[in-house]
């Protein structure tokens, strides 16, 4: 027998109800009757436009009764959150004007674009960017038609949405994007509207802690607004169903001062929201003024607002006998079947006419001037703020000469250096030279990733509580520009918001756990790809991700930390926006990092381990190799002036080392073998130039890799990725790739390599197996190599380390 839950009491229902006159923490009626009338008219107009976008392709002002041919054949878009979004937009217009405030509005609720686009059109911004959508009847018709229509714009706040930096297609990132935008923008307030469905996501739940990372002296502020409309697509939302007291305690626990605005009665809700926003903006200004006048940065309790309104507010109460407004049925399109259901068509006509468009728009279809004056003008408009088009504000970094940070290499493969450590020194000076528009991001791993020299340029940001022991190596400061929190989601969100508003950054993280932000990077790639086709979107700084603590040096952490698969994800993205680099040593890493920091509109993924590694090239050679992206290492090859017997190729630091060691074994045992040694830094060189702008032509690829000789490719990641990139090449059938095969646990470095067959012995055996003249003649050497593998594994199990001759191996020639 299934137990029936007890019915809620009337008190419990009223405490979480979205209906009735406004219930507000802040009391007051700041709006005059005339101001109230005009603001409500602006909101009515915005709601009218939202419905028109979803339903209409003709007859935008209902100058004649609606007919089926006026209705779109495919009804797309989401109504449910739109009235709340436009309600807030209407009120933000007022405080922007009242306080002369720079403001950015980030819309978190998924597919909530109608609620943002409507006011954007009313204020004139939309027509400024889309001149065919003019502020008249014909322009309104085009505005309606292009929404969620082939060749038009999407149903969430895409890059085509003026005033947006936030791709609303995937939920969870609004708050972290908002804080990233606020960093180093002292005059900006970012209002972030988080949907209550969105609030159930992991990324958003963690991002509430971003309030501990704002310095009120140098940063702007974020005003988070939790929009409780009660439902997701098909279910109640958690935060809308817990008690008022529990919800208030939750946000107090996060460190905010929460203010509530709840209800459905428009007149009282307008007054309540106006009073609450006035209070919150004044409180933010007070916090900033106190900090800036005293010069003492403290962590205040920043304000936030909980706005509870009905889902589908002002929409149909009921359709076909089912509740709509205030229920999940209002989430998307409240009613369909317009072409064969006259009753639904009649309901739509009544619904749209309830906003009295004849009072809002004149004979030309232009918004009444007295209503339009409720919006700011120029760049103060939310749809025209330069903060939402970061390339307008972006200034190039002042970069030191990276060549001054390299290591001296007199002979390839004879000295060892921690690859990422000199990069930390370079980034230290990048911070010093760009103290207001560059930050370093990482999840509690900056020191672990050997980038700790950055602390000499700027400390880790910390404005929460301090303990005496923090002074001993804590590297904490309220002025710090190194951002660390153990949430890759939040860091990525901060960095994206920072870049999208015109600044620069660098993100380092462990290879196995960069997967935490797979989806976020995916969404950013889509944003960049669309932005390239939006003429007024200016280029922003690239998203630079250093992947370190890599798979081949996770022998101590084990299987859980072994996963190079982020590269497989990133190569799926558009060739216009993604780049992948695998520098094998310090000097090439510095060259790649400098290039990436100078670039725009890309996602640059750099893979380089943090541990001690052999160094191969002086700076001049490293720059040459990086510029070419793929190169024959002459000093490691024996085929000069002749056709090679085999091509040994590699990409990645450890795989390069093992391939070099394999070539030495082959040279010692087969002195006449002609080996061509190729190193790949730019992974997309393997793709044809018809598929990626960095790709090699078929002629250049054939020249390097031959038309018919065996290719043994030792790759850092999963081996099939190389096949994916090179499958169309002429000699692909002779390409044999070694890489990570999900083998390993707590191993020594060489044993881990052996288990995955990327070790020197396996590579040498591959050559013997695939060079025709060695298949039989090389049998004795092949058996010797197998014996050596066994010996190395036994040694590892007995001593817990690799043999000295493996650990201390150097290039002998």
TrEMBL record:
Protein's name in the database: Probable phosphoketolase
The Xylulose 5-phosphate/Fructose 6-phosphate phosphoketolase N-terminal domain sits at 32-392
Domain Xylulose 5-phosphate/Fructose 6-phosphate phosphoketolase C-terminal: residue ranges = 610-811
**What protein family does this chain belong to?**
Belongs to the XFP family.
Give GO MF terms, alphabetically.
aldehyde-lyase activity
Q: Which Pfam families match?
A: XFP, XFP_C, XFP_N
Q: Name one GO biological process term.
A: carbohydrate metabolic process
Name the keywords, alphabetized: Lyase, Thiamine pyrophosphate
What is the protein's species of origin? Fischerella muscicola CCMEE 5323
């Amino acid at each position: 027998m299934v137990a029936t839950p007890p019915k809620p009491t009337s008190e419990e229902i009223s405490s979480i109800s979205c209906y009735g006159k406004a219930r507000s923490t802040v009391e007051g009626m700041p709006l005059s009757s005339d101001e109230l009338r005009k603001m409500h008219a602006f909101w009515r107009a915005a709601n009218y436009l939202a419905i028109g976008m979803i339903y209409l392709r003709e007859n935008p002002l209902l100058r004649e009764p609606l007919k089926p041919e006026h209705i779109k054949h495919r009804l797309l878009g989401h109504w449910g959150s739109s009235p709340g979004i436009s309600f807030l937009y209407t009120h933000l217009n007022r405080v922007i004007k009242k306080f002369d405030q720079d403001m950015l509005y980030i819309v978190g609720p998924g597919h909530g674009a109608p609620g943002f686009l409507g006011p954007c059109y009313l204020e004139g911004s939309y027509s400024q960017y889309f001149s065919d959508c003019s502020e008249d009847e014909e322009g309104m018709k085009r505005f309606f038609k292009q929404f969620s229509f082939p060749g038009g714009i999407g149903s969430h706040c895409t890059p085509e949405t003026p005033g947006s930096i936030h791709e609303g297609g995937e939920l969870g990132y609004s708050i972290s994007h908002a804080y990233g935008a606020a960093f180093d923008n002292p005059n900006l307030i970012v209002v972030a509207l988080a949907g209550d469905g969105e609030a159930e996501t992991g990324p958003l739940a963690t991002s509430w802690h971003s309030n501990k990372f704002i310095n009120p002296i140098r940063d702007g502020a974020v005003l988070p607004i939790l929009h409780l409309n009660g439902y997701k697509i098909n279910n109640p939302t958690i935060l809308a169903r817990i008690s008022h007291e529990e919800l208030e305690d939750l946000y107090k626990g996060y460190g905010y001062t929460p203010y509530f605005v709840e209800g459905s009665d428009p007149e009282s809700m307008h007054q309540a929201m106006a009073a609450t926003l006035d209070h919150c903006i004044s409180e933010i200004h007070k916090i900033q003024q106190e900090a800036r006048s005293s010069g003492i940065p403290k962590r205040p309790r920043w304000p936030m607002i909980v706005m509870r309104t009905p889902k589908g507010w002002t929409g149909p109460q009921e359709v076909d006998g089912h509740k709509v407004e205030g229920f999940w049925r209002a989430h998307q399109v409240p009613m369909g079947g317009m072409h064969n259901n006259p009753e639904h068509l009649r309901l739509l006509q009544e619904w749209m006419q309830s906003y009295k468009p004849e009072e809002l728009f004149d004979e030309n279809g232009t918004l009444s001037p007295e209503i339009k004056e409720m919006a700011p003008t120029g760049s103060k408009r939310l749809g025209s703020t330069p903060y939402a088009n970061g390339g307008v504000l972006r200034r190039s970094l002042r970069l030191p000469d990276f060549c001054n940070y390299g290591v001296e290499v007199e002979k390839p493969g004879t000295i060892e250096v921690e690859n990422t450590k000199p990069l930390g020194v370079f980034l230290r000076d990048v911070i010093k030279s760009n103290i207001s528009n560059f930050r370093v991001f990482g999840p509690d791993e900056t020191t672990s990733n050997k980038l700790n020299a950055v602390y000499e340029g700027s400390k880790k940001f910390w404005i929460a509580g301090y303990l005496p022991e923090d002074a001993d190596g804590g590297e904490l400061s309220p002025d710090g520009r190194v951002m660390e929190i153990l949430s890759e989601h939040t860091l990525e969100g901060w960095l994206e918001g920072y870049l999208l508003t015109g600044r620069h950054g660098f993100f380092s993280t462990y290879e196995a756990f960069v997967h935490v932000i797979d989806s976020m990077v995916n969404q950013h790639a889509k944003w960049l790809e669309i932005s390239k086709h939006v003429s007024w979107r200016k280029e922003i700084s690239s998203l630079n991700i250093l992947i370190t603590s890599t798979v081949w040096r996770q022998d101590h952490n084990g299987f859980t930390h072994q996963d190079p698969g982020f590269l497989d994800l990133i190569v799926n993205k558009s060739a216009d926006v993604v780049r992948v680099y695998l520098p094998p040593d310090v000097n090439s890493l510095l060259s790649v990092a400098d290039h990436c920091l100078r670039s725009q509109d890309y996602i640059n993924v750099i893979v380089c381990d943090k541990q001690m590694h052999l160094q191969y090239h002086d700076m001049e050679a490293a720059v040459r190799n990086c510029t070419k992206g793929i190169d024959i290492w002459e000093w490691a090859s024996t085929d000069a002036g002749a056709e090679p017997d085999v091509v040994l190729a590699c990409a990645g630091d450890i795989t390069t080392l093992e391939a070099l060691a394999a070539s030495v074994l082959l040279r010692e045992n087969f002195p006449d073998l002609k080996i061509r040694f190729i190193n790949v830094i730019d992974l997309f060189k393997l793709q044809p130039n018809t598929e990626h702008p960095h790709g090699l032509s078929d002629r250049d690829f054939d020249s390097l890799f031959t038309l018919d000789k065996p290719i043994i490719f030792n790759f850092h990641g999963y081996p099939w990725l190389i096949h994916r990139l090179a499958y169309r090449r002429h000699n692909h059938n002779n390409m044999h790739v070694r890489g990570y095969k999900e083998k390993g646990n707590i191993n020594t470095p060489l044993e881990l390599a052996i288990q995955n067959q990327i070790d020197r012995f396996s590579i040498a055996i591959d050559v013997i197996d695939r060079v025709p003249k060695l298949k039989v003649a090389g049998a004795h050497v092949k058996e010797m190599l197998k014996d050596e593998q066994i010996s190395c594994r036994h040694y590892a199990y007995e001593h817990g380390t690799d043999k000295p001759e493996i650990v201390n191996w150097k290039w002998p020639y």
